Amino acid sequence: MFNLELLGIEPIINASGAVTRLGGAPMPEAALDAYCAAARTSIPLDHLQGVACRVIAEVTGAEAGLVTSGAAAALTLGAAAILTGFDLNKMERLPHCEGFPHEFVMAREQRNGYDHAVRAAGARLVEVGFHEPVAGSGVRRVETWEYSSAFGPSTAGVLYVYGSRSRPPLVEVVEAAHDHGLSVLVDAAGELPPRANLHDLIASGADLVAFSGGKAIRGPQATGILCGRRELVGAAALQMLDMDDHFELWEPPANLIDKARLPGLPRHGIGRGMKVSKEQIVALLAALRLFTEGRYDQDLGGMQANLERVASALEASTVHCSLIVPADAQSLPTLEILLGEAELGRSAFEVCRRLRHGKPPIYVGHSLLDEGKLLINPLHLNEHRTTVLAKRLREELCR
């Protein structure tokens, strides 16, 4: 059996969850089986994406869907589709957009490092609004009229980063954009669960929605989903798929790409480097079925028990443990460990660093280090890893 240590690298204990830098979520056996089965055969990838299109459409209510090489790739492809549609000349010119609309309007407060994926397609971002409560200068956040006032002849669409607290509501932004004939691309990469978001964001009227496939869905780490209007998803597919064929012989799946709208085959598009393998596609579909059926919910009790074991192991320390159990019965529980830095004599950053440099290396969640907290996500924990994690935390925190 293959062992990573043969490559000279030591596997870690992941207490951070389904984060990209640590390899994403653990894949279920059904997804691994599908991956291996696909690896043993050959399948036309456009036909396989046609199958994926049908499955994704069924679970989201969208007209069409596409498996991408991650949510960031879905954003690049989605932006490219909005910029060009089925115009082969525009496809060939990307990321250079001189002479046609290429601006995406978005809320200033929603800017983040991932919007680079949209800019990579050639789009220029136009910011609107403020987040005055965060700035301590007022009570208002971005408002819908600010989007509308920014729309002009160079506007191609709207980029909206979805979250449960995003403002203004997505449905209002969609309505404003559609009143001006513009499409809305939604970044919902990490917004699963709840499972309802798969359907609800499309139901809002959004034209394209991007989800991660390697987080809550537990598909291959480098997978994502782009779903929405068929003509836009089809245009995105054209800019990713291998186009080295004869137009006369090419028979794309009709539910994904309308060949009748094309005068010929485009050259390899801006998304060619974002190709998705047959193994990734079928594994993502297998994992998506488990996710939509709620099969992962049965793991939550065991995950909570593992976190309770960790908290119990630290009862003799000066730290304070808080078990966070979401009420939706779909999201993972987490454990927050608040360090008394004065009593402990070292900061949360130092403890985090020492855990990473230990044997075995342990990576805990680091999003709350500024607050003096370690965050434990149980997604990758089992009985053995929980035991090792608890032991190492005792060594670092019980003095």
Automatic annotation (TrEMBL):
Domain Aminotransferase class V: from-to ranges: 169-236
A molecular function (GO) term: transaminase activity
Keyword Transferase listed: yes
InterPro entries: Aminotrans_V_dom, PyrdxlP-dep_Trfase, PyrdxlP-dep_Trfase_major
Sorted UniProt keywords: Aminotransferase, Pyridoxal phosphate, Transferase
Cofactor(s) listed in the protein's UniProt record: pyridoxal 5'-phosphate
Transferase among keywords: yes
The name this protein goes by in its record: Aminotransferase class V-fold PLP-dependent enzyme
Natural source organism: Singulisphaera sp. Ch08
